[in-house]
Amino acid sequence: MKGEMKELKLTVNGKPYELKVKPETLLVDLLRQELKLTGAKVGCLDSACGACTVNIDGKAVRSCSVLALQANGREVITIEGVADGDKLHPIQQAMIDHGAIECGFCTPGMVMSARALLAENPDPTREEVKESIQGNLCADAGYVKYIEAIEIAAKEMRGGQ
Amino acid sequence: MIAAFEYFAPKTVEEALSLLSKYKEEAKMIAGGQSMLVVMKQRLLTPEYLIDIKGLTALDYIKYDEKQGLRIGALTIHRALEKSPVVQKHFGVLSEMEGNLATIQTRNWGTIGGNLCHSDPAGDPAAVFIALKAKFKLASSGKERIVEADEFSTDYLEADLKPNEMLTEIQVPNPPPHSGTAYEKLMVMKGDMGVIGAAVSITLSGKDSVCQDARIALSNCSSIPLRAKKAEEVLIGKTLNDGLLTEADEVAATEATPPSDVHGSAEYRREMTKVFVKRVAKLALEKAKAA
């Protein structure tokens, strides 16, 4: 029946959820409004800005452009699930240390895009780093520091090599 | 924002097809939804029933063999095509095209079949598949049919898909020897939808430059991905040289009926069609000579 709630099972930041959602719910709305994980930002809601980027099964995806039900059975990681307890993820730490933080609105999306990149490519070229955040707009145009911070994090994650 | 609908997530292709034949025009299929959710948010599309096929892993494959060529399952994501070693080796143009299709986030979730069924004349894959003489396999309950890539789109956002049919596979034949295919589009920013784009395939008869066969397809130059047949005829059977390529690009521009919008006037797009047909034909020719 139209408007009928549907069951959704997924894990978010390692925690399993069993929920009932309206089918038209976008993943970003589920995360922000139901699960109160407001780290993924809503910039455009139109698949243009990348501020809502999360990782689904390890890949960078825009949570405004996925139905919540399409994440059924999948593993979603948001910016809230990136740090290891109190210890920031090397990408987060490098962005802070390197001043790659700007106003902060695009930062969660940048981290999630970079995290997906470094998971599959620990030693990316500068071109590959640039490509990884090509879908993340920074209104302050702070791209150079983001790129450098991702490279610093990559090196750190490779054990300084 | 998105209008309410009833949601189904079938587990098999058969189940998906039976839902389609039950609900027909009132149902829409969603794959990655990277184009479709945009029009659903705008309420340009308000289906009563939504059949979510993103999870049909049976249609997520890339297969290659020397006789049959390339077979791509409709639910293969763009990023998989971009990164596939077998695609890169045998159909490099497809991988190159994917590298400029939107952003990594879109390519990680959006599917090749969803892109084609959206039938946006500005889409990149359709033009490349037309140049590669691809065929699309469409399935309905108990039936299958094959449509040529250049006959699939029928109008702006309209395709030759009956209400009970879905695209299941893209079949790309191996090109004859001495063939080359290239695609480029005019972008303001990398990953943009092309202001215009051109895909060109050229097959030479041998080591000389006699053009045995040619295919030219244009994106964002009409209400459908447009095959520039008259421009192809300029090239076929002739020894290719700069003057002939110029003639072909001028003919292609007369075949184009591009839109005027914020990204460019129709007049500008026609001029750019000339530039890109020639540029891409040269690239295809180089590839054909090297093949």
Fold and architecture overview:
The complex is a heterodimer of chains A (161) and B (291). Chain A is α+β, with helices and mostly antiparallel strands. Chain A has two domains: 6-79, Roll (Ubiquitin-like (UB roll)); 90-157, DNA polymerase, domain 1. Chain A contains five helices and five strands. Chain A has helices spanning 27-34, 90-97, 107-120, 126-132, 143-157; strands at residues 6-12, 15-21, 53-56, 59-62, 75-77. By secondary structure, chain B is α+β, with helices and mostly antiparallel strands. Chain B has three domains: 6-52, Uridine Diphospho-n-acetylenolpyruvylglucosamine Reductase, domain 2, CATH 3.30.43.10; 57-172, Uridine Diphospho-n-acetylenolpyruvylglucosamine Reductase, domain 3; 179-290, CO dehydrogenase flavoprotein, C-terminal domain (Enolase-like, domain 1, 2-Layer Sandwich), CATH 3.30.390.50. In chain B, strand 6 and strand 7 form a beta hairpin. Chain B is globular and about 60 Å long. Classes of the chains: A alpha+beta (161), B alpha+beta (291). At the A-B interface, strand 4 of A face helix 2 and helix 6 of B.
Topology, please?
The complex is a heterodimer of chains A (161) and B (291).
Chain A: E1 6-12, E2 15-21, H1 27-34, E3 53-56, E4 59-62, E5 75-77, H2 90-97, H3 107-120, H4 126-132, H5 143-157
Parallel strand pairs in A: 1-5
Antiparallel strand pairs in A: 1-2, 3-4, 3-5
Helix pairs in contact in A: 2-5
Chain B: E1 6-8, H1 13-23, E2 27-30, H2 36-41, E3 49-52, E4 62-65, E5 69-73, H3 78-83, H4 85-90, H5 92-99, H6 104-109, H7 112-118, H8 124-131, E6 135-140, E7 143-148, E8 153-155, E9 158-159, E10 166-172, E11 179-185, E12 197-204, E13 211-219, E14 226-227, H9 229-235, H10 242-255, H11 266-290
